Amino acid sequence: MSQDQNHPQSTKAQVTQAAQIGLPQSALRRRLIEALILVFCVGVIGLGTYALAFRAELDQAAERAGADLALSSDRLRAGLERYRELSVILADHPIIMDLVTARAAPPAGLQAATSQLLQAMADQTGSHSMMVVTRSGQVLAATDRFAAPKGVTPAIQRAMNGALGSAHFVDDQGQRRFVYAAPVFLKGAGAQGAILVHVDLETIEWGWPVDPFAVYFTDASDVIFVSNRTELILAGGGDKAFPAQSKQVIAGHDVWTMTAGPYIPPRVLHIERPLPIVDMTAELLFDLRPVMNLAALQAGIVAAIALAFGAFVVLATERRRTLFDANTRLEARVAERTQDLEQLNRDLKRAQADLVQAGKLSALGEMSAGISHELNQPLMAIRSYSENAQLFLERQNPDKAAKNLDHIADLARRMGRIIKNLRAFARQENEAISDVDLSAVVDAALDMTMGKISGAGVTLHWQPEPNMMVRGGEVRLQQVVINLISNAVDAMAQSPEKHIFIALGASPVSGPDTPDMLRLSLRDTGSGIADPDKMFEPFYTTKDVGTAQGMGLGLSISYGLIQSFSGSIRGRNISQGGAEFIIDLPRAKTHT
Ligand code: ADP
């Protein structure tokens, strides 16, 4: 049996091995695909996170850049403001008003005094130069150094119209100037002259702190006029100042990518706001590298988490798949085994049935001599009774003849009963367990073994008992009792005293916990059991092997049969000599 099981196992092991040899390629491909999908998903998640984080950071950067731009614009405005105030205050100065009043022929002393005043004011305020001009542009007084009012004509014009004029230009030395032109009003004549205050823009820029961002101010002709980055000054705004530039609008913000020298970052946020007070546009380039780094960091963290989670999911799935495969294989093996076991069970049942039948036939073989004697005897008797009946009829004695016929009928009935029992016994069929009368079972067994018993000169002690109903199979129980009787007769072959005692009664093992049991005991006066521990083993016999008697199966079959009825059978030697066999069987319910 173990060999039978080992063989399919080793075949299965080979199949599994073969499957495993084929596994890596497909599994490797599957894992590669899973890894690619994972990497792709992680990439998409990382890029998505980067885009979102970049946009969010961009909003904040725009806010900061806006504040910076406002601050820078204020700085420029505040730097120019004092010169503006100065021009307005000087326009009301009596000396200047006198000079403008006497413009056609100013006294030399007045002109010099005015020039002195202007110089003193310029020195104190740090303005580049000042001058007083007439409506036609004629210079009436000026600081030591002064340039002709080039490029300021529109500003003077504006002053002559009664408003504060302003202008910016590059002077002959290539310096950037900002100029305020304040009108000088004469009583009843309106604006007749103007005081011009020139500012050197470089001196204003010098006062600015070093900012991490580039800020610049472009005029109407798109020229960068003021900036905290010298390389940008006087460059054309937009494309001219920033070559190789690409402009994008991301989430409503201008993002410029470019190469514009070491002091301009490669990727910037560009913002601008008009600055009407100086007639320029303020613009700022905010370095986006920290923003990009922050977004990349966030994207990296999210991607790492996604990667870890994805790897966990992939591994868990892989593990589940492995477990599932193992489980499927196991289930298949269990099913296969179950099938094998069921087949074995069927084979076992058939073998048992065959064995029981063999046991019965063996018992019949043993009994055949006795049976033929048992049938022969009544046959002989029938013959002599019928001859006698004939004689009585010839002698006109019908009463005696009738009696003989009665005897014949009795004997025929007895023979019929024996034959019926034998046929039932020899038939191979699986009778169901039912209520069986133990007394009838013993009677039938005795009917079939009577030949053997009386042939051996054994005296039988047997008293049938009423209501001895047990659960069992009638023929199988007969087989057990026949076997016990036959063994007892065999064991007494050499005994001077030959007695068999068969008794029925309630079993002492019956109690509240055990089912109600009935007991059949069979005792002989034979040699006793040679080895009580071995006698229920199959093929154990002390009789001549090969004869009809000694197959060594009777007791082992009996043991199996009684067990199948939930009963028990045991045997022992008794003190006064001989063996006793005891069978306990559950009592039928209907009689309890
Ligand atoms: P078999 O009758 O073919 O030998 P059994 O299984 O019926 O096979 O009996 C096994 C053995 O048990 C017998 O050979 C005998 O040694 C012993 N045995 C059985 N019944 C008795 C008995 N009543 N007295 C003595 N020995 C017995």
UniProtKB/TrEMBL annotation:
PROSITE patterns for this protein: HIS_KIN
Transmembrane segments: 35-54, 295-316
Coiled coil location: 327-361
Entry keyword set: ATP-binding, Cell inner membrane, Cell membrane, Coiled coil, Kinase, Membrane, Nucleotide-binding, Phosphoprotein, Transferase, Transmembrane, Transmembrane helix, Two-component regulatory system
Catalysis: reaction(s): ATP + protein L-histidine = ADP + protein N-phospho-L-histidine
UniProt-listed Gene3D superfamilies: 1.10.287.130, Histidine kinase-like ATPase, C-terminal domain (3.30.565.10), PAS domain (3.30.450.20)
Cellular compartment(s): Cell inner membrane
EC number: 2.7.13.3
Protein name: C4-dicarboxylate transport sensor protein DctB
Organism the protein comes from: Pacificibacter maritimus
Taxonomic lineage: Bacteria, Pseudomonadati, Pseudomonadota, Alphaproteobacteria, Rhodobacterales
